[in-house]
Amino acid sequence: xxxxxxxxxxxxxxxxxxxxxxxxxxxxxxxxxxxxxxxxxxxxxxxxxxxxxxxxxxxxxxxxxxxxxxxxxxxxxxxxxxxxxxxxxxxxxxxxxxxxxxxxxxxxxxxxxxxxxxxxxxxxxxxxxxxxxxxxxxxxxxxxxxxxxxxxxxxxxxxxxxxxxxxxxxxxxxxxxxxxxxxxxxxxxxxxxxxxxxxxxxxxxxxxxxxxxxxxxxxxxxxxxxxxxxxxxxxxxxxxxxxxxxxxxxxxxxxxxxxxxxxxxxxxxxxxxxxxxxxxxxxxxxxxxxxxxxxxxxxxxxxxxxxxxxxxxxxxxxxxxxxxxxxxxxxxxxxxxxxxxxxxxxxxxxxxxxxxxxxxxxxxxxxxxxxxxxxxxxxxxxxxxxxxxxxxxxxxxxxxxxxxxxxxxxxxxxxxxxxxxxxxxxxxxxxxxxxxxxxxxxxxxxxxxxxxxxxxxxxxxxxxxxxxxxxxxxxxxxxxxxxxxxxxxxxxxxxxxxxxxxxxxxxxxxxxxxxxxxxxxxxxxxxxxxxxxxxxxxxxxxxxxxxxxxxxxxxxxxxxxxxxxxxxxxxxxxxxxxxxxxxxxxxxxxxxxxxxxxxxxxxxxxxxxxxxxxxxxxxxxxxxxxxxxxxxxxxxxxxxxxxxxxxxxxxxxxxxxxxxxxxxxxxxxxxxxxxxxxxxxxxxxxxxxxxxxxxxxxxxxxxxxxxxxxxxxxxxxxxxxxxxxxxxxxxxxxxxxxxxxxxxxx
Length: 746
Hints:
single chain; 5-stranded antiparallel β-sheet; 23 helices; elongated
């Protein structure tokens, strides 16, 4: 592989105009497609095979024309202090608002509060339910404006009016902190390279890669029914890995220049060595993201595949466009150790040139730290494990759920409507359960409907049960159930299971099947499906990556250590997420206005993404160690050598990735905010505790055993030559892998 990538790097360096033209053309094509594409649809939490989804599908069959997937809105009215909604003036205002709402071209139905018994017991709060023919993301702007105008006119009449539901759903915004994250990445790159030109290359290529990936997702969003958050998450991951992959290749290029190589050869060797690590690191991320398909949740599968595609683009750009841009940059990208005018002229070994040993270079921080760990491996190992274990303690109190209007910021009208409904009708009113009774196989459908209704009324935790509403055929009915607890509570989950258990006995008696659906029941089913899929997914992803790392490192214990270290970092990160978003620690600093259950897909998403990113640092750092070991160094010295060459750039890469992820904490979407924080803290734990402390400690304790591989397995495995040994051997024979080496004057 190293030889192939070496030739690819040199080709891209020589044919830089052609390579740049290809990527610019792809970016333009994707941009045009995105600009002309219709907007993305709403994100769906449907799960094939679950009871809630079966009931939803049954409703579409038995109640045609009711727009089961259409947008909904609840216009909530509150009377001024000392008045009631039944007062003549307030009632006239509400009825006028209802009449205005009915005029919309996309409106399917509007329920009057006074005829639909939608007035609170104390008479201070009422609501009108509006149902539309299309989903929230497909609503015309004129329809949304009409809804807002109707609410504003009622406010002008003296009422407090808020609008809940998904009719006013908007594409989530990431906020200014995303730009701050990119700015931090730029500062870190400048400090690392000491040159604006060298620092700009990873940023430029990462932005081009993300631009192609996100534009492609936007162009295909409508056709593939991609959710509105898919492009944001692809941007988050693609930007982080794109900068990191380019950073490693540029850093290796500068190291090759410091060895005295000419620029084309240095570009080829950088792609052949660091590029090999980029390929395998990218493969682990892609495996982890595509592996999300095993969960069998369409939304999660699409998110994973879209993000994996962006990562694949980042790898290809790093391997081709970086050497092309290095060709354009010429002498403005200086050898390692040399500084441009920005941060001083030269330092360390560069004072006398790569071949002059008159003044030895001072050991860098990475070398000093690795030497310390090698001397005290057991103490560092115990301290790191105990620290991560302590951070993981909150994860034992993990509660899972999915966000609703109750998790929105208090500044939004959706959240204020949610609070008004809870105040007037109880916390469970925001999460009604819809019970669907399929009596097609029953001899007495009406009796079955009545029996189901009576059975539900006798259950604990039920506030109200509406009369059965049969369809035209009389073989199916819906019953609305209002719990006495909020939608995301354990009590509501227990009630859903109690209704389903009671349905089993009813089916035995009447032949009618009872199904529970609605957004609350769907969220519960999503959470349970994700919990059930977590272990199989973990085994699949870790198992495949374990096999891949055996090929890369030609070792059994090194990949095993990498996997165990990942488990420590992801558990510690989950503990931090629970502490902030569930317990409320530092919630004000993170902009978390409402604590509650952790998003149900968070654990499995973090397992997938964090594992892929953790293996990035494992591959980049340990590959340097194995390279030194293969070239004859003792195991302990190889650890120090790996840190000497890799610690600085891995640290910079981790800080950049943390900055990019942390930038998404400012998102208006609670899911994106939580994922941004979780990934940022996970990178911190994995890069600075696991890879920088536990990895050298374990390798120092294992010694030569770390690189043990059974002889039969060594013969069976393909030799991918990530360390570039083939390049080194050819050089020692007096020629590079390409006999027609061409001098490049730059």
